[in-house]
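Figure 2 data, in text form.
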Amino acid sequence: MILDVHTHSMISEHWGCEWHNNWEPVYGHPADEVTPEKYDAAMQGVDLSFVFGIKATRAGMNTPHEFVADFVRQTSTNCIGFMALDPSDDDVLEQLRHGVQLGQIAAPAGAPTLAKDTLDWILNGDPRPALGVESW
């Protein structure tokens, strides 16, 4: 079985100015528009993939949960949608609930540009301090 655990369903508007300012100078081209058709072509031979967008609010990066859910429905690839969350968002728990309602699994970090709390979350395995909550 071939499993791809890191794939994206994003279009340029999800990057905000992050791609243009920081990635385009390195890669030399505008952000790719990942369509379900392009995704299916790239995933030939893959049995299951995890697909997600990106979320880093302070950097202006956001792939809406609805976009990922629609993308998963439109692709013929067997894939599981992941929501991208920014733990520094005040409404992150509501975003989490909304993504779960759409059938998505939570990703603890949306982008490497997130705050130190995200790193603490990943290293310590407990998101509650990063979310500012004591219990679920």
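Caption note: The two ends are 35 Å apart (CA to CA).
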